């Protein structure tokens, strides 16, 4: 079951990026947002980071932002803050001008 959200994000260069994975796969990222700071094992991050494996930083940002805005993670969170937490945990970086609105 593939989900083409049609969502795109603009970077400072004007290049648009789309999410190339099924957004439902990112549901595994929800527990990461519920874990208390200082998870010593990092167990909560493994499934989420695995779901982002192979994506560029921009693609990962677009996918996570789209999932957060569509409430696919089932959490009422501040999307920009949650996006930064998820990306940094998985060693990804949103491009400087990327905004999750």
Overall, the morphology is globular
Mean pLDDT: 78
The overall strand count is 2
Computed structural class: mainly alpha
What is the helix content?
A: 25-40%
Enumerate the strands of the largest sheet in spatial order, edge to edge or round the barrel: 1-2
Strand fraction equals: 5-15%
Rg (CA only) = 13 Å
Largest sheet: 2 strands, antiparallel
Question: How many alpha or pi helices?
Answer: 4
Separation of the first and last Cα atoms: 26 Å
Order of helices and strands: EEHHHH
Account of the protein in words:
With 101 residues, this protein is mainly alpha-helical. Helices cover 37% and strands 6% of the residues. It contains four helices and two strands. It has helices at residues 30-34, 45-52, 57-69, 79-89; strands spanning 8-10, 16-18. Strands 1-2 form a two-stranded antiparallel ribbon. A hairpin with a 5-residue loop joins strand 1 (8-10) and strand 2 (16-18). Helix 3 runs antiparallel to helix 4. The model is unreliable at 1-15 (pLDDT under 50).
């Amino acid at each position: 079951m593939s989900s083409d959200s049609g969502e795109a994000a603009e970077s400072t260069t004007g290049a648009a990026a789309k999410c190339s994975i099924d957004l439902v796969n990112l549901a595994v990222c929800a527990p990461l947002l519920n874990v208390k700071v200082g998870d010593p094992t990092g167990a909560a991050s493994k499934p989420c980071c695995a779901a982002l494996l192979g994506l560029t930083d921009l693609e990962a940002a677009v996918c996570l932002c789209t999932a957060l805005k569509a409430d696919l993670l089932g959490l009422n969170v501040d999307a920009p803050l949650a996006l930064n937490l998820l990306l940094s945990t998985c060693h990804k970086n949103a491009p400087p001008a990327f905004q999750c609105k």
